[in-house]
Amino acid sequence: MKKNLLAGLALSALLFGTSAAAQNPITIATDATFPPFESIDAQGKLVGYDVELMQAICDEMQLDCNIINAAWDGMIPGLVSRKYDALISQLTVTDARRRIMAFSDIYSHPVFRFVGRQGEEYDFGPDGLKGKVVAVQTGTPMDAYVTKYHPEATIKRYDAGSAAYLELTGGRADLHMSYEAQIIHSFLKTPQGEGYALVGPRLSGQDAPEFGEGVAIALNKRSTELLASINEGLARLRANGKLDALDAKYFSAD
Protein backbone atom coordinates (compact mmCIF):
# COMPACT_ATOMS: atom_id res chain seq x y z
CA MET A 1 0.00 0.00 0.00
CA LYS A 2 2.78 2.40 0.98
CA LYS A 3 4.79 1.59 -2.17
CA ASN A 4 1.72 2.16 -4.36
CA LEU A 5 1.14 5.54 -2.71
CA LEU A 6 4.75 6.59 -3.26
CA ALA A 7 4.59 5.48 -6.90
CA GLY A 8 1.40 7.46 -7.43
CA LEU A 9 2.92 10.56 -5.87
CA ALA A 10 6.03 10.18 -8.02
CA LEU A 11 3.90 10.07 -11.18
CA SER A 12 1.97 13.13 -10.02
CA ALA A 13 5.23 14.98 -9.44
CA LEU A 14 6.16 14.47 -13.08
CA LEU A 15 2.73 15.51 -14.31
CA PHE A 16 2.38 18.63 -12.18
CA GLY A 17 6.01 19.73 -11.93
CA THR A 18 7.60 22.51 -13.96
CA SER A 19 11.24 23.40 -14.50
CA ALA A 20 10.75 27.06 -13.64
CA ALA A 21 10.99 28.44 -10.13
CA ALA A 22 7.72 28.66 -8.28
CA GLN A 23 5.55 31.65 -9.08
CA ASN A 24 5.44 34.49 -6.56
CA PRO A 25 4.52 34.58 -3.82
CA ILE A 26 6.15 31.28 -2.94
CA THR A 27 3.98 29.22 -0.61
CA ILE A 28 5.89 27.24 2.01
CA ALA A 29 3.98 24.85 4.27
CA THR A 30 4.93 23.76 7.77
CA ASP A 31 3.19 21.61 10.38
CA ALA A 32 2.99 24.02 13.32
CA THR A 33 2.57 21.36 16.00
CA PHE A 34 6.27 20.69 16.61
CA PRO A 35 7.87 23.31 18.85
CA PRO A 36 10.51 24.67 19.03
CA PHE A 37 10.84 24.05 15.29
CA GLU A 38 7.37 25.28 14.28
CA SER A 39 4.33 26.29 16.30
CA ILE A 40 1.73 29.04 16.69
CA ASP A 41 2.17 31.59 19.47
CA ALA A 42 -0.49 33.24 21.63
CA GLN A 43 -1.03 35.93 18.98
CA GLY A 44 -1.68 33.33 16.28
CA LYS A 45 1.69 33.89 14.61
CA LEU A 46 3.85 31.13 13.15
CA VAL A 47 7.08 30.92 15.12
CA GLY A 48 10.02 28.56 15.55
CA TYR A 49 13.42 27.58 14.24
CA ASP A 50 12.26 26.35 10.83
CA VAL A 51 10.01 29.37 10.35
CA GLU A 52 12.86 31.79 11.06
CA LEU A 53 15.27 29.81 8.91
CA MET A 54 12.92 29.81 5.93
CA GLN A 55 12.21 33.52 6.29
CA ALA A 56 15.94 34.25 6.52
CA ILE A 57 16.54 32.33 3.29
CA CYS A 58 13.75 34.22 1.57
CA ASP A 59 15.10 37.58 2.81
CA GLU A 60 18.64 36.68 1.75
CA MET A 61 17.49 35.75 -1.77
CA GLN A 62 14.80 38.45 -2.01
CA LEU A 63 12.08 35.85 -2.49
CA ASP A 64 8.45 36.75 -1.80
CA CYS A 65 7.52 33.95 0.61
CA ASN A 66 4.29 33.08 2.37
CA ILE A 67 4.86 30.54 5.16
CA ILE A 68 1.63 28.83 6.20
CA ASN A 69 0.47 26.21 8.68
CA ALA A 70 -0.67 22.92 7.10
CA ALA A 71 -1.79 19.52 8.32
CA TRP A 72 1.07 17.02 8.41
CA ASP A 73 -0.74 14.29 6.47
CA GLY A 74 -1.52 16.64 3.56
CA MET A 75 1.84 18.32 3.19
CA ILE A 76 3.62 15.93 0.84
CA PRO A 77 0.58 15.39 -1.44
CA GLY A 78 0.16 19.18 -1.46
CA LEU A 79 3.75 19.65 -2.59
CA VAL A 80 3.39 17.08 -5.37
CA SER A 81 0.18 18.68 -6.67
CA ARG A 82 1.75 22.18 -6.54
CA LYS A 83 -0.56 23.42 -3.81
CA TYR A 84 2.67 24.26 -1.98
CA ASP A 85 6.00 25.30 -3.48
CA ALA A 86 8.13 24.02 -0.61
CA LEU A 87 7.90 22.33 2.77
CA ILE A 88 9.93 23.07 5.88
CA SER A 89 8.98 20.97 8.88
CA GLN A 90 12.03 19.03 10.09
CA LEU A 91 11.71 16.76 7.06
CA THR A 92 14.33 14.02 7.09
CA VAL A 93 15.83 12.99 3.77
CA THR A 94 15.25 9.32 2.94
CA ASP A 95 15.46 7.25 -0.22
CA ALA A 96 11.68 6.82 -0.27
CA ARG A 97 11.13 10.57 -0.07
CA ARG A 98 13.77 11.31 -2.69
CA ARG A 99 11.68 9.31 -5.16
CA ILE A 100 8.84 11.82 -4.97
CA MET A 101 10.48 15.08 -3.84
CA ALA A 102 13.62 17.13 -4.30
CA PHE A 103 15.56 18.33 -1.27
CA SER A 104 17.73 21.30 -0.49
CA ASP A 105 21.14 20.89 1.05
CA ILE A 106 20.86 19.37 4.52
CA TYR A 107 20.81 21.98 7.29
CA SER A 108 20.85 19.79 10.41
CA HIS A 109 21.51 16.24 11.60
CA PRO A 110 19.06 15.47 14.40
CA VAL A 111 19.44 12.96 17.20
CA PHE A 112 16.39 10.85 18.10
CA ARG A 113 15.48 9.70 21.62
CA PHE A 114 12.78 8.14 23.74
CA VAL A 115 11.28 9.99 26.70
CA GLY A 116 9.63 8.29 29.65
CA ARG A 117 9.03 8.46 33.38
CA GLN A 118 12.11 9.37 35.38
CA GLY A 119 13.42 6.41 37.35
CA GLU A 120 11.67 3.79 35.25
CA GLU A 121 13.81 1.10 33.65
CA TYR A 122 13.26 0.13 30.03
CA ASP A 123 14.77 -2.62 27.91
CA PHE A 124 15.38 -1.42 24.36
CA GLY A 125 16.68 -4.75 23.15
CA PRO A 126 14.71 -7.29 21.08
CA ASP A 127 11.25 -7.82 22.63
CA GLY A 128 12.24 -5.47 25.45
CA LEU A 129 9.28 -3.13 24.97
CA LYS A 130 6.69 -5.89 24.87
CA GLY A 131 3.67 -4.70 26.79
CA LYS A 132 4.76 -1.04 26.63
CA VAL A 133 2.76 1.67 24.85
CA VAL A 134 4.86 3.93 22.60
CA ALA A 135 3.37 7.15 21.20
CA VAL A 136 4.71 8.59 17.91
CA GLN A 137 3.67 11.04 15.22
CA THR A 138 2.35 9.11 12.25
CA GLY A 139 4.39 8.97 9.05
CA THR A 140 7.60 10.16 10.72
CA PRO A 141 11.05 8.56 11.05
CA MET A 142 10.15 7.78 14.66
CA ASP A 143 7.04 5.92 13.53
CA ALA A 144 9.05 3.92 10.99
CA TYR A 145 11.79 3.09 13.50
CA VAL A 146 9.50 1.93 16.31
CA THR A 147 7.37 -0.06 13.85
CA LYS A 148 10.42 -1.90 12.51
CA TYR A 149 12.52 -2.42 15.61
CA HIS A 150 9.88 -2.65 18.35
CA PRO A 151 6.87 -4.38 16.75
CA GLU A 152 6.13 -6.09 20.05
CA ALA A 153 5.21 -2.73 21.59
CA THR A 154 1.74 -1.22 21.34
CA ILE A 155 2.24 1.75 19.00
CA LYS A 156 -0.11 4.73 19.21
CA ARG A 157 0.08 7.15 16.28
CA TYR A 158 -0.99 10.79 16.22
CA ASP A 159 -1.23 13.39 13.46
CA ALA A 160 -0.03 16.32 15.58
CA GLY A 161 3.56 16.41 16.75
CA SER A 162 2.64 17.52 20.28
CA ALA A 163 -0.33 15.18 20.85
CA ALA A 164 1.84 12.28 22.04
CA TYR A 165 2.94 14.26 25.10
CA LEU A 166 -0.67 14.42 26.27
CA GLU A 167 -0.79 10.63 26.10
CA LEU A 168 2.47 10.41 28.03
CA THR A 169 1.48 12.77 30.82
CA GLY A 170 -2.04 11.32 30.91
CA GLY A 171 -0.66 7.87 31.63
CA ARG A 172 -1.94 6.41 28.36
CA ALA A 173 1.58 5.87 26.97
CA ASP A 174 4.79 4.65 28.56
CA LEU A 175 7.18 6.19 26.05
CA HIS A 176 7.31 8.74 23.27
CA MET A 177 9.97 9.00 20.58
CA SER A 178 10.95 12.26 18.92
CA TYR A 179 13.87 14.53 18.11
CA GLU A 180 16.08 14.94 21.17
CA ALA A 181 16.09 18.73 20.83
CA GLN A 182 12.31 18.80 20.52
CA ILE A 183 11.85 16.68 23.66
CA ILE A 184 14.24 18.83 25.68
CA HIS A 185 13.13 22.29 24.62
CA SER A 186 9.38 21.79 24.23
CA PHE A 187 8.71 19.26 27.00
CA LEU A 188 11.43 18.58 29.56
CA LYS A 189 12.07 22.30 30.11
CA THR A 190 8.37 22.92 30.80
CA PRO A 191 6.29 22.20 33.93
CA GLN A 192 4.56 19.38 32.05
CA GLY A 193 7.90 17.60 31.66
CA GLU A 194 8.61 17.39 35.38
CA GLY A 195 9.24 13.78 36.37
CA TYR A 196 10.21 12.72 32.84
CA ALA A 197 13.62 12.12 31.28
CA LEU A 198 15.38 11.04 28.11
CA VAL A 199 15.82 7.28 28.10
CA GLY A 200 17.47 4.73 25.85
CA PRO A 201 20.17 5.22 23.20
CA ARG A 202 20.91 8.36 21.19
CA LEU A 203 20.09 7.47 17.58
CA SER A 204 20.74 9.03 14.18
CA GLY A 205 20.78 8.11 10.53
CA GLN A 206 24.07 6.30 11.12
CA ASP A 207 22.24 3.87 13.40
CA ALA A 208 19.13 3.18 11.31
CA PRO A 209 18.16 4.18 7.74
CA GLU A 210 14.69 5.18 8.96
CA PHE A 211 16.25 8.32 10.44
CA GLY A 212 17.53 9.46 7.06
CA GLU A 213 20.50 11.53 5.98
CA GLY A 214 19.54 14.72 7.81
CA VAL A 215 16.93 17.48 7.66
CA ALA A 216 16.27 19.58 4.55
CA ILE A 217 13.66 21.70 2.77
CA ALA A 218 11.47 19.74 0.35
CA LEU A 219 10.46 20.92 -3.12
CA ASN A 220 8.74 19.58 -6.21
CA LYS A 221 11.27 17.64 -8.29
CA ARG A 222 10.86 20.04 -11.22
CA SER A 223 11.41 23.23 -9.19
CA THR A 224 15.05 23.47 -10.18
CA GLU A 225 15.35 27.26 -10.09
CA LEU A 226 13.74 27.56 -6.67
CA LEU A 227 15.95 24.75 -5.37
CA ALA A 228 19.05 26.59 -6.56
CA SER A 229 17.87 29.81 -4.86
CA ILE A 230 17.18 28.06 -1.57
CA ASN A 231 20.56 26.32 -1.61
CA GLU A 232 22.28 29.62 -2.33
CA GLY A 233 20.38 31.21 0.57
CA LEU A 234 21.43 28.42 2.93
CA ALA A 235 25.05 28.79 1.83
CA ARG A 236 24.97 32.52 2.53
CA LEU A 237 23.46 31.99 5.98
CA ARG A 238 26.23 29.52 6.81
CA ALA A 239 28.90 31.92 5.56
CA ASN A 240 27.61 35.03 7.35
CA GLY A 241 27.03 33.27 10.69
CA LYS A 242 23.25 33.67 10.75
CA LEU A 243 22.65 29.91 10.75
CA ASP A 244 24.94 29.48 13.77
CA ALA A 245 23.16 32.36 15.51
CA LEU A 246 19.79 30.72 14.90
CA ASP A 247 21.08 27.42 16.29
CA ALA A 248 22.32 29.22 19.41
CA LYS A 249 19.04 31.08 19.86
CA TYR A 250 16.93 27.94 19.92
CA PHE A 251 19.25 25.25 21.20
CA SER A 252 21.64 26.91 23.60
CA ALA A 253 22.36 24.80 26.68
CA ASP A 254 21.37 27.72 28.90
UniProtKB/TrEMBL annotation:
Its main location: other. This is ABC transporter substrate-binding protein. Belongs to the bacterial solute-binding protein 3 family. It comes from the Bacteria. PROSITE patterns: SBP_BACTERIAL_3. InterPro entries: SBP_3_CS, Solute-binding_3/MltF_N. It is found in: Cell envelope. Residues 1-22 form the signal peptide. It comes from Corticimicrobacter populi. One of its GO terms (cellular component) is cell envelope. Residues 25-254 form the Solute-binding protein family 3/N-terminal domain. Coiled coil: none annotated. Keywords: Signal.
